[in-house]
Queue: 3 jobs
Job 1
Amino acid sequence: MAQQSGYPSDVTDDEWMFVAPYLALVREDAPQRQHALRDVFNALRYLVKTGCGWRYLPHDLPPWPAVYQQWARWRDNRCFEHMMADLRELARVLAGREAEPTAVILDARTVQSTPESGARAGYDGAKRRKGSEVHVAVDTLGHLLAAVVTPANAPDRGQVDALCERVQQVTGQKVAVAYVDQGYTGEDAAYAAAVHDVDLQVIAKPAGQTGFVMLPRRWVVERSFGWAARFRRLARDYERLALTMQQFHFLAFATLLLAKGVFRATSP
């Protein structure tokens, strides 16, 4: 019988069987381990989903210092980035696609700063908001491949090089096309993509069109941002480290694919 969850964010038995190998950086019975790894993972998922502070984790979960210390190990080893890569491949195969994409969509969203992230914050004049910019690359199904966190005043086109470099690393140089909006227009952005053998294609609004328009390909990344917004820890930038904000995005997107059960494709 499946374990009864204490919170809706708790990992299920089937999910835990899949994720445990990615998270077990030391043996489960290692002498330095005082709390069950599954309980620590549940606490982390609770925090990212609800947006609570570390010190506000419920008392029936492991103490926040233990959760934070284990999170720092997972973060620095990019455990959720590796997990997401495998889940994304499984999701694509189940959808009848090749395991690795040949096309991606690049975009960015501005996340309001807080006192914790204020040292990194920049002012986004277009959106009239001070905060951080999360630049992402997703495949045509909306699954996350790469993320870069910068001050909000960093131009979108300036992150093309880093995003394209990363997507080629994680896909084995399979990506040929990247779709972008008009914020990526210019020879520098096109050249930065071409260095990594990626053709940057700008999807522009129809002439004279104002307001929101659902554009081919481009709507996919907007939906991905909507998915991310369901995790309250990602609604604002509460993180002192850009790496934390980046890796929380991979945890969120991995959580979504785990909920869909794509990992069951690996079951005998």
Job 2
Amino acid sequence: MPRGRYSLHDPHDHTPLAEEHFHCAPGPSGWRYVSQLTTTSGDHRGSVDLALDELGRPIRLELHAAGWQVRGAALDGVTWVRTDPTGAHATEGNVRAHAFTGTSPAFLIATTRLLRLTPSATATRVRLVAFTDPVLAPRTVDQSWALVKRETHATDNGPLTVDEYQVTALDTGGQHAVHVAGDVVLAAPGIELEDLESAPSTFT
């Protein structure tokens, strides 16, 4: 069960945003990721709880940030309920999309599990609903993902396979790289792996 800490920062000006303390593990029905977020001063900032089925689809998502809450799942595309900090108002949304995304590294792992790409120059298009900080506002985004490189590195704990993905935002054409080992993000825009207590899980 990988357990560790990511630091999150603004990918444009590198302003520190939060630290995300996480643990995750594959199970008989899929994969689950749970994390707590703190501000740079150590205050509680939010939480992420994401569970995927064996095909990589989100069977349960629960996000908390700035008093806002989102609960969602794959249902007729993806469906979610967003509740305001007072708890008095809840709005439901549904989009013909494949999955969810957001600032948490969990969503990058979830997308790789959903797409299950093999090393190739061919890109695969995916539609995602992004929940943006700080109020978890939903926004539909279209991306293409390609697994451009797979390398195996020797480590003290045995071989470690690292996948490099090229992700393209289809609305702007902007591209960035995401480096993943098993169910841990090693590097991505706005994300740095600061601490890892055990080796990443390998998916069969």
Job 3
Amino acid sequence: MTSDAPCTILTAGFSFHRKPFQMSEAEGFPHYLIRLQTEGCCSALIDGAITRVESGGLMLIAPGVPYNLIIDKEHYPLGEPRVESGDYHIFCRGEWLDRWWNSRHRASLMHIPLNDAFVGLFRQLVLEQRRLSDFSPEISSCYLQILCMEIDRITLDRPSVSPRGYLAYRMKQFVEENAALLFRLEDVAAHVDISVSRAVHLFKEEFGTTIVKYVNEVRLEMARERIVYSPMPLEHIAETCGFMNYTYFHRQFRRRYGMSPKQFRTLSREKDAPALI
């Protein structure tokens, strides 16, 4: 079966090691490797030195770069030292990947906050590669391109690589993923295991706004899109976008957009209406 896909996944899989494991390629691979450490830890050759890779460690290995992976016993808080390492790995190649890789400097190792959306891209790629009867290399190629672009977005969106910046970024991500649900400041702080006061301070320091204001901004943008493009009643839109009651939503919306939700919907539909001849 031939394919016009701009990039090709050679193999994609998930491995969980409970026994020591080692892989060494002195001359490197003839293709790209994207590897995400999801559980436990390992050691790998990064920029000429053996480096510890913990959960959330994303490795980007270019063709021809020497590769050495070591998985061995680690000391954990409870119990005896043991081997416990899980990872997703994708071997791939293609002209699109060449252009993406060379579009900017690629760090061999970066730390990525693990969330369902990002890990889900790896999981979906693995599932696509396992299909037999209806496998589509074009679909796999699209998922791989989305993964690469998501890596870029995470890299650019993250305001700081410091531990403080990392915590703030994870809180921001929590807000964006859960904006449609009702949650408290305590839930945001608990997501990164810090106090509410520290969470509020870190978020304001990194993003220049409060958590509450950012939550409202995300929810209002969700509501604006639904007001324009969906037939849902305004009260239902407010509820499904995380607002506790319509009165509060109405007040926040008017403050943000200078008109009521009803006026906004009427105006947007008038703009989109076809001209009468």
